[in-house]
Structures are given as structure tokens and as C-alpha cells.
Amino acid sequence: MSIEKIKQNYSNLEKEGIFEKEFLPHINPMYNFAYRLTYDDDDAKDLVQETYLKAFRFLNSFQQGTNAKAWLFRILKNSFINDFRKKSKQPPKIDYQEVETYYNSDNVDVSMTTDLRVETVQHMIGDEVSNALNALDVDFRTVIILCDLEGFTYEEMSKILDIPIGTIRSRLHRARNLLKEKLHEYAKSMGFNK
Amino acid sequence: MATNLFSWIKQSVFGKISCKKCLELLELITDNEASSEEEKRFREHINACLPCYESFNLEKSIKEMLQTKLEKKQVPEDLIESIKLKIRNHT
Ligand SMILES: [Zn+2]
Predict the structure, then answer these.
(1) Which residues of B touch A110 (CB under 8 A)?
(2) pLDDT tens digit string along B12-41?
(3) What's the distance, Cα to Cα, between the start and end of chain A in Å?
(4) Domains of chain A as residue ranges with CATH
(5) What is the pTM of this model?
(6) Ligand 1 centre distance from Cα of residue A132 (Å)
(7) I need a surface site. Which of A68, A112, B30, B77 has the fewest CB within 10 A?
């Protein structure tokens, strides 16, 4: 998993084998991740291609049998930040201060959870869910995708995003509350949830 | 004395953790990151506390909604071919 230390020395044949057996099987989740970051078919394709070429070029930094999916997701996310985000010039919108202090504060945000109802959530259709998720800032969207859609553990997420587990937890918490807010707004506009 | 009695009753009904602690555990539980001891205390609490039980159901239903309702795109075939081709030209 760690990109820094372990250097392997694979032959070309071994490289192709690893690429085929350990990297390519993850291309569908990779493509979906790329698409949810960029919202554009062509950008998603470029991002996935760039990621796979990088993965191949730096294959000696990958230790066979370790978590290839997390390794690939990390490369994809870094490529996105370095190349794609710069292009779109989106200023980061997160108030990190607010995020980091959450778990040290006494007031647990209970109010949010009472507004939205389980039945409302269960009646949401795909487009509504997708719109709510897309409305979140990319850093919040990312933790939800990694955790809820791809099932990465906090520890894996911490390595993919290069942030401590405590920050993963607070960011996830904030992201989920924002998502609930969006779902609730949507439900209200449709006349559900009184 | 009266407050002690009150807290004793509260504890025996809601288990060993408070609602605040329960809500802090909520996401750890839904994300499968809690220890078995935390899980046990959490279950004890939500079995006796309706608001926390409801919060838990909501959290679970949102996770389920994300997993089942979002469209999963199929990667374009030509992308795989193009990647393989570029790799082969490099080796
Ligand atoms: Zn409670």
C-alpha cells in the first residue's frame, strides 16, 4: 500500500501479469469513482487511463498481494487533485477548522437526524440520490463514495486520502449530515416529510 | 440521593452508555468499525432508547440507499483496449 518505501523488481512478464490480474479487475469501480469526481464521461476516461498508465509505470512500488484497489484509488485521487482540479480551478470550499474540531466538542449534532425519515429515504429514486450526492463539495463526496459505495475501511481511506483516521471520521460525519440536509430539502420540495 | 437513584434507574434501563456516546458510536457501527464491546453496549442502548434506535435506522437506510439506488456505470470497452495498447507499446 505505501508508495514510498518498498521497491520491487518485476520482470516485464510479471508486470503484465500483475497489471492484468490485480489492477484491471478494479476498472469498473475506478471508472465510477472517476465519473463521480468529474461528472463527465470523457474526463472520467482520461482520468482512469492516466491512473492505469501511472500504476504501470510505478509498478515496482507496488507490493504484490497487497491492497491493489486502495493503491489504485490513491493514484486516481492524486491525479484528480493535481491535474483535473487545477483545470477547473475550483476553490476548496471546506471549512476545515469546523470539521476538525467536531470530535472535540460537546455538542453532538442530534437535530439533523430527527428531520429526515426512514420512509422518505427509502422512497428516493436514483436521480434524486445522485443529485444530493453531487451537490456536496468534492472532499465530502469522496469520503462517502469511498466508505459507503466502495466499502473501504477507515484505515484504507486514511491511506488513500493521506489524512488521519480522526479526520476521516469527522469528515464522514459532516458529509453525511450535509447529505441528509440535501435529502431533506429535496423531500420537502416534493411535499414529503410534512 | 434522589439524583443517584434516578441515574441508577436510567442506567439500568438504557444500558451503560449515554445517548451522546451512542450517537458517537452510530457511524462506527454502520461502517463496521466498532469493537465487539462497543457494539454490545450500543445494542443494549438502542434496544431501550427509541430516539437512538431511530437514528440508527436512518443511518442504515441512507447507507443502503447509496449502495442500491445509485447507477453503476459500466466502463467503456474501448477504454480497456486503449489502456492495454498503450501498456504494450511501452514494454
Ligand atoms: Zn439514546
Answers:
(1) 19, 23, 55
(2) 666 678 999 999 999 999 999 999 999 999
(3) 48
(4) 1-89 (1.10.1740.10), 115-194 (1.10.10.10)
(5) 0.84
(6) 28
(7) B77
